[in-house]
Amino acid sequence: MRGLGVLAIIVGAGAAFAAEAPRTGSAAYGDWRTDAPGVSRLITPADLPPPFATLSAGNPSQRAARKPTDIPKALDGFSVDLFAEGLSDPRVVRIATNGDIFVAESGAGRVRIFRPDGVGAPPAQAAVFAEGLEQPFGIAFYPSADPHWVYVATPGSVVRYPYRSGDLKAMGPAEAIAELPSGGSHWTRDLAFSPDDRTLFVSVGSATNDAEGVRAFAARLLGGSWDKERDRADVLAFDPDGNHRRVVATGIRNCSGLTVQPATGALWCAVNERDGLGDDLPPDYATRVVDGAFYGWPWYYIGANQDPRHKGERPDLAGRVTVPDVLFQPHSAPLGITFYEGDAFPAAYKGDAFVAFHGSWNRAKRTGYKVVRLPMKDGKPAGVYEDFLVGFVANDESVWGRPVDVAVTKDGALLVTDDGGGVIWRVRWTGNAGTPPAAQN
């Protein structure tokens, strides 16, 4: 690893975007060229095109080398700097109770810790907390107020390490507490504890795109899966020791980001929907996860919209599909999600969510590759989403960065992991003309 915190590129971040009404209908769809800080979009179930309205594209992005001048763009008043670089596939980032920053380097099979040295400063210490893991992803601390364990999710299991606040290295070997369904297309497994610490939630993506080759589905659960999809495309729950495995909700194709909303205690997922139905279908989404709910996969999407590849297979489920809270442009590939409870950003951001879009391959015109804000009102989603951090795309073929996860540091900054560039970006509020954040609404 090289150059931790050495490059501190502070930018005024791009022009402030004039307030405008959310883009709706066909105007809500576009590509990376229509992205700009402050642009908001509202996509509803009524806006969906029919299946196969366009051909299904195979359009993976090429990786471009990041130039020193390549910096993500945010609204005026925010500064963006390079917090760390030289990482191997940095994915999930979590903040410990003492402010230490835990990062899953999935490509290197390790969990790294960064310890900031003062408010707004680059990391003074970096250490490997644990290594020798298979594609680590989700990280969680237990109990939340005074952690004694650090939990880490791999594609096939959940393990935990003994921990005391301030430890830079695990004080003992990994203890496997739960086995997970492994293999298949979706390997990411995220973790979150319930507010009372009694339940460990684990997200498990589907093994296939739309259940190709799956022989049967269980009737014991609403939309419950079977065969090679058994206990997949869902959110599972365990006791903290890994016992009492149960299914929370089904029909969620790939909940890559999992978190609990502090203001309400609601469990949230950022979800990658299926491919192969065209450029603009179906929307990806973020949603509250309701216990016992069914979200449609593989038979339906965004309510009772039937996937034509499963026509007539499960008519009994058509009226039982829960519609997600916030719909995103299809093939954006949302991964990480967090809620802003810090005090450093303007007051209007308090309680809002941020979601990292990794960018997808199944669209003729490139989309995703940014971080968006989900405004909340009284703890409930407004339905719109707003571009917050953009600029990772070099041209129609290439990108130099791919956001994965987001987390809020103790000093109120927003960290963004970028596995395309092997770096972590930091976004801070620097204010407009000296106006304090509390006055910026």
Keywords:
441 residues, mainly beta, Neuraminidase, 4-stranded antiparallel sheet, 32 strands, globular, disordered C terminus
Shape: globular
Structural class: mainly beta
Across the major sheet, the strand order is: 1-2-28-25-24-23
CATH topology: Neuraminidase
Please give the share of residues in helix.
Answer: under 10%
What profile does the largest beta sheet have?
A: 6 strands, mixed
Q: Could you tell me the radius of gyration in angstroms?
A: 21 Å
Name of the CATH architecture: 6 Propeller
Strand content: 25-35%
CA(first)-CA(last) distance? 40 Å
CATH superfamily: TolB, C-terminal domain
What's the number of domains?
A: 1
* Highest CATH level, the class: Mainly Beta
Low-confidence stretches: 1-18, 433-441
The total count of strands amounts to: 32
Describe this structure in words.
This protein is mostly beta strands and 441 residues long. The chain has one domain (23-439): 6 Propeller (Neuraminidase). It has no helices and 32 strands. It has strands at residues 23-24, 40-42, 62-63, 78-84, 90-95, 101-105, 110-116, 123-130, 139-142, 149-154, 157-162, 175-179, 191-193, 200-204, 234-238, 246-250, 255-260, 267-271, 284-288, 300-301, 305-306, 326-328, 334-339, 353-357, 370-374, 376-377, 380-381, 385-389, 398-399, 403-408, 414-418, 423-429. The chain has a 6-stranded mixed beta sheet with strand order 1-2-28-25-24-23, with no helix packed on it. A 4-stranded antiparallel beta sheet has the order 4-32-31-30, with no helix packed on it. It has a 4-stranded antiparallel beta sheet with strand order 5-6-7-8, with no helix packed on it. The radius of gyration is 21 Å and the shape is globular. The chain starts with 22 loop residues before the first strand and ends in a 12-residue tail after the last strand.
